[in-house]
Each structure stands twice: as C-alpha cells, then as structure tokens.
Prior knowledge:
By secondary structure, the chain is mainly α. The chain has helices at 4-24, 30-54, 63-83, 88-96, 102-149, 156-168, 174-183, 191-217, 221-249, 254-264, 270-278, 283-307. It has 12 helices and no strands.
Amino acid sequence: MNHPVLAALLPVVILIAIGFIAGRAGLMAANSVKDLSKLVFTIFLPPLLFRTMVNVQPENLQGRPLLAYLLGMALMYGVMFVAAGRNRRAAVLGLAASYSNTVMIGIALIQFAYGEQGVAVLLALITVHSLIMLSLATVVLELVTLNESSQGQGHPFKILAASIWNTLKQPMIFPIIAGLLYAQTGLGIPAVIDKPLQLLASAFSPLAVILVGITLASTKVGEHLRMALALSMLKNVAHPLVVAFIGLALGLSGLPLAVMIVTAALPIGANVFLFAQRYETALPEVTAAVAISTGVALLSVAASLSLVRFL
C-alpha cells in the first residue's frame, strides 16, 4: 500500500466508490446532483485557482518542459475536437483526452516519486495548465455553443466577441486573472483571508470526485464503455507518449521531462466532469471515462514511472 501509484490513486477510487454507493442508495436526488455540481464549480473551484495563481514561483516556470507538455495537451485536444465533430460535445471530449488530474492525484504522486524538486516543477505546470487549458476550453465551449444556438447564421465576429465575454464571466476565469494580477503586487494573501480560501479550495477535489461516483451510479456504463475506453487510452497512454516525443525533440531529459510524462499519464481530471455537467453535454461518456481512466492509471502511471528512468 506504500507504493506511490497505489497511494495516490486509491483515495480517488475510494471516493468514487463512496459517491457511487451514495447514488445507488438514493441519498441525493437527481436534481440535487446538478445543484451540488454548480456549488462545487462556483464556490470551491475559484479559491483553488486564485491561490494557485497567487503562489506562482516564476523561477520554476522552465520554458521547454512546459512547452512540451502544453504542445502535447493542445495536440490531444485538437485531434479529439476535430475527430468528434467540432461541436459542443467534441469540445468536452477534447478536454477529457487532454486534461490530467494534476492536483488531487498528481501532487501526491510526484511527491512520492520525485520529492520537493519534482513538486516544484509540477506546481509550475499546474499554474499554466489551469490558466491555458481551462481558459481555452471555456472559449471553445462558449464559441461552439453560441454558434449552435445561432445555427451558424450569426456574424463570426459577433459570435467570437460574445463567446469571449461569456468566458470572462465564467467562475473559473476571473479568479485566474485576479490571482495573476494580485501576485504582481507581491503582498501575499493575509492569513485571515487565506485560511478560508484554503479550506474552500481543499474541499474542491474530494467533492468533485464524489460527484463523479454519484453520477456514475445512474449512468449505464455499458452503453458508453467503448467511448470511455477510447478516451482513457488517449488520455492515459497516447498523451504521455506524445509529451515524451515532443520533450525529446526539444532536447529535454532528467527530472523535468520525467515529471511532464508522468503527469500526462495521470487519469482524466474531475474538472472535465464539471464542464460536462455545466454545459450539459457528453456527461454519461465523461462520467464513465473518468472512472475507467482512474483504473487504467494504475497501469499507465506505473509504466511511465518505470520507463522515464531510461530517458
């Protein structure tokens, strides 16, 4: 049980199981799940993003490792988005194929495997990961949603302007911008304010994962097993291979490359489930994929940890 992969992933499996049991036991009504999801998205996620942005350490923002990961993530997202039809569903599935569970699983795993140096690299990645991927996914989702609602008849510039405005109003974008701006003051967050923010932020990951389990209880996984397996293979297997290839092409080696590859092998992040819930699209597929991807990660992460030793 002290193996780093098991120690990092089993808590997530247990939380999904708790949510699943709660869902099957009828402890939450179907409409309550959506309300709780909205609460998690609007109350618990913003403090996590704000604190992450405020605590950015510029010296850890190494260009080439971050570039390798971001290029790999963008490639995975783009391929899935185009292959799935370039619509709202495709935007969510693209996120599932490229967005790792970097916080709840990643930090603990990298801490076990690589110590504080590895965590410093990962925290720098988490900052950019949230800033770019959540913002990009929101822009794309708002853009395709508006385009679908106008049935392709709206003026492209009006649709783009409206999508950007809607993006800025989303609860995950403002705290990112506010945190980055506040970080420039160098003041730090006063303890009396930071403590409640920290408590709210710490509640995000477990609640989000439990919600996956609750939704899974009412999802007919068999009907979506093929898509869930495909998304899991893309996220857990193809994503780290793409990051490894790009990293080696950029001349990377050692700890930074290892952290990027192992992070890419992590399962689909719970944020993707919340996006699917919020935009009411691809929810059954994403719910099943998050659960299956977490199981597949027991193998993909272990394989990545073993193989990166040779790079």
